């Protein structure tokens, strides 16, 4: 790789930042407008705030693919479930002959009794079955509210619902082009750390014990994006970890930004890429843990290629452990053919690491 590669990549990174900032600005105006109306119609859904700086409810997965978490209101005083029980219900109310499958990896049940405070609306049949708050029922209610809010807010010229059997997706027109949003109801649990997240491992030098304590204080969230099980999310904790990457003066952030730029421009472009920024962020965290010292992150080229090699290994093996819940494989449900094609592309690059950006 030539000496001016760093400048070339990081100039593209700066242009991307300006472009994404403009889209986030326009998207959050629309989302704030919609969710304010939704919150007015249903107490259980909270408006996504408008922020002049970083908005923790907006996660950029790719330049035209955003995850929007919509906070849910009224549930407080979370505690882990005290005992396991079998579930025999279906979404339509019929009794099943066999129990539902237990949650795996990043999934868990959510019972209304796990909260010390739960207003009566959370006990109603539109979201609750046999004491469980069921994500598919929540999404059913939420989808109807989104459809009505688009009409009420006179946004049908800018916002279009996408057909999806479960999650709620919309397309928003911005001045820079179309952006696809996944609108996901979220139960925030800032007072606890999930027992499924056995982190950090013993004898790890990165991050520091002080950083670990800080990160765990942000708790976790549960996202409604499947039928029966809620998905664990650590977006706040992960953002804090990202913000504190280079407190020792290293170049981890620059290496990550360059990796993301190459992924988006060259290796894996498109509106719904097989690998998102979230996957790359996880690759970064694992690599930082393996190479914990400041001296490991002083030379940009070495750090960048280290991340590429880790990405290539994960894609080739179709296996990328979630950073906090290590029994979960983030590539489990990703297209094998697309992963194999990306692995081949990365292998070619690693043989001759030349940067050729569009």
TrEMBL record:
Record domain Mab-21-like HhH/H2TH-like: where: 251-346
InterPro entries cross-referenced by the UniProt entry: Mab-21-like_nuc_Trfase, Mab-21_HhH/H2TH-like, MAB21L/cGLR
Protein's name according to its UniProt entry: Mab-21 like 3
Family: Belongs to the mab-21 family.
Domain Mab-21-like nucleotidyltransferase: 54-244
Record-linked SMART domains: Mab-21
Taxonomy, superkingdom: Eukaryota
Native organism taxonomy: Eukaryota, Metazoa, Chordata, Craniata, Vertebrata
